Each structure stands twice: as structure tokens, then as C-alpha cells.
């Protein structure tokens, strides 16, 4: 009798433990994983197009949507669009040209405010090492994004945090550096003349060349 009673007690214990584990699993399934909750990019695949949504601010009602139809770049001047909206209100809609299907968006600070801006790859040129991109500055204070005019003509752009300039590096018969700034009305413009990379991209030499250009520009 004692043996049957012991077995009965053990069955009750395992049953309770099983219910507790099932309840815990259900709670975990209902919770949004931290990585997913903090993720800002979602890809959706349509028949011939890729949609990418990005929330530039803590208020996720603001959405940047990029629609890219890469298979149609040969027949259309613009095969992609970017839309910035909040609910039904659309603040911005631009037509773009994007030549690849995946990994065409990057997030980097290009104006030194510590906020990552939206860099959208367009195409390559020259020897295939020259990349051209669109740039949209994210303004968290005013809840806006602004396209930088003519930025798609800047080759292989990188932001130089020390000098607060954009450094372009063009590959051709000779490799050349060019230095740019962004105006208050969101237009990129070159300062100084382009100069040849005769120093194998040595960081110290490049720093001195940028300083020279800025000293002439600021006189």
C-alpha cells in the first residue's frame, strides 16, 4: 500500500512540474525576444521587390520604407522608392536607382551629431570599386529625415569625425581623394581640389592633406 501511495505522490509532483514548465514556455513564447524588439529593420519579399522598413526614432509610428525592385533596373531609370511616413501621413517620397537586391542599406553618422543616418547603395562604377550611394540625414530632434542633394555623385564616401568632413576616394587611372561638406540646406559640396593618392592612403599624410585644404577654405 505504501508503494502505491508513494507512486501516486510522485505522479502528482511530475504532473505539477510539467504544468509549470508548460506555463513558463507559453509565457516565453508570448514575450518578444530582446533582439527582435530592438531590431529596426524588417525585410519582406514580394514577387519581384524587396521591402525594408526602418524606425529611425524611439517613436515607432515613424517609418522609413524602402521598396526595391532590383530585377527592373535595366528597364527603368528608377527602380526603387523611399517613403518616410507616420500612419497615413507621408512626409517624403523619393524615387531611387538601386542595382542590388540585398544589403543595400547601411546606417552611419555622416554629420557628426552622433545619430546614424541612412546610407542607401545605388551602384558601382569605374573598375567596380567605386560605390555610389544616397544619403538621408536623420534629425531626431525635429523628427525628420532629409535627403542630401547630389550625394549620389560622391564616390566611396566616408565621414571623417576629426575634421567633420566627408572623404571620397575615387578609383581610376590614378586614385584620388576629394573632400566634401554638407550645407545647411542639405546639399553636398566639394571644398578644395581633389588630390592624388601618392602616399598609399597613409592615415597621417591624409590627415595633413585634409588640414591643408581646411586651412585654405577657412581663411
Describe this structure in words.
Helices cover 22% and strands 38% of the residues. It has 219 residues and is of the alpha+beta class. The chain folds into two domains: 38-147, Lipocalin; 155-219. The chain has a five-stranded antiparallel β-sheet, with no helix packed on it. The longest helix has 29 residues, at 2-30. It is globular and about 50 Å long.
What is the fold's blueprint, element by element?
Layout: H1 2-30, H2 34-38, E1 41-45, E2 50-54, E3 62-68, E4 80-86, E5 89-96, E6 105-108, E7 117-125, E8 130-139, E9 144-147, E10 158-160, E11 165-170, E12 176-182, E13 188-196, H3 203-217
Antiparallel strand pairs: 1-2, 2-3, 3-4, 4-5, 6-7, 7-8, 8-9, 10-11, 11-12, 12-13
Organism: Pedobacter paludis
Protein name: VCBS repeat-containing protein
InterPro entries: XAC2610_dom
Radius of gyration: 26 Å
Helical amount among residues, as a percent range? Answer: 10-25%
Task: Please tell me the CATH architecture of the largest domain by its name.
Answer: Beta Barrel
Question: What is the count of β-strands?
Answer: 13
Mean pLDDT: 84
Largest sheet: 5 strands, antiparallel
Gross morphology is: globular
Question: What count of structural domains?
Answer: 2
Q: What percent of residues are in strands? A: 35-45%
Helix/strand-derived category reads alpha+beta
SS element count, helices? 3
Distance between the termini: 102 Å
CATH topology of the largest domain: Lipocalin
Side-by-side strand order of the widest sheet: 1-2-3-4-5
Order of helices and strands: HHEEEEEEEEEEEEEH
Spans of at least 5 consecutive residues whose pLDDT stays below 50 are 1-41
CATH class categorisation of the largest domain:
Mainly Beta
Amino acid at each position: 500500500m505504501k508503494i502505491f501511495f508513494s507512486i501516486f505522490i510522485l505522479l502528482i509532483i511530475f504532473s505539477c512540474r510539467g504544468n509549470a514548465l508548460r506555463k513558463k514556455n507559453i509565457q516565453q513564447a508570448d514575450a518578444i525576444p530582446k533582439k527582435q524588439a530592438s531590431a529596426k529593420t524588417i525585410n519582406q519579399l514580394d514577387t519581384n521587390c524587396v521591402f525594408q522598413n526602418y524606425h529611425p526614432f524611439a517613436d515607432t509610428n515613424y517609418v522609413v520604407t524602402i521598396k526595391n525592385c532590383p530585377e527592373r533596373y535595366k528597364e527603368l531609370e528608377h527602380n526603387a522608392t523611399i517613403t518616410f511616413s507616420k500612419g497615413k501621413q507621408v512626409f517624403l517620397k523619393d524615387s531611387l536607382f538601386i542595382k542590388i537586391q540585398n544589403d543595400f542599406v547601411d546606417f552611419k553618422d555622416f554629420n557628426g551629431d552622433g545619430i546614424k543616418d541612412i546610407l542607401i547603395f545605388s551602384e558601382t562604377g569605374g573598375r567596380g570599386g567605386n560605390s555610389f550611394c544616397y544619403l538621408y540625414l536623420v534629425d531626431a530632434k525635429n523628427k525628420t529625415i532629409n535627403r542630401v542633394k547630389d550625394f549620389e555623385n560622391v564616390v566611396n564616401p566616408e565621414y571623417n569625425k576629426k575634421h567633420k568632413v566627408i572623404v571620397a576616394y575615387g578609383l581610376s587611372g590614378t586614385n584620388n581623394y576629394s573632400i566634401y561638406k554638407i550645407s545647411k540646406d542639405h546639399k553636398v559640396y566639394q571644398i578644395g581640389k581633389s588630390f592624388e593618392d601618392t602616399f598609399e592612403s597613409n592615415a597621417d599624410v591624409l590627415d595633413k592633406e585634409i588640414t591643408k585644404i581646411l586651412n585654405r577654405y577657412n581663411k
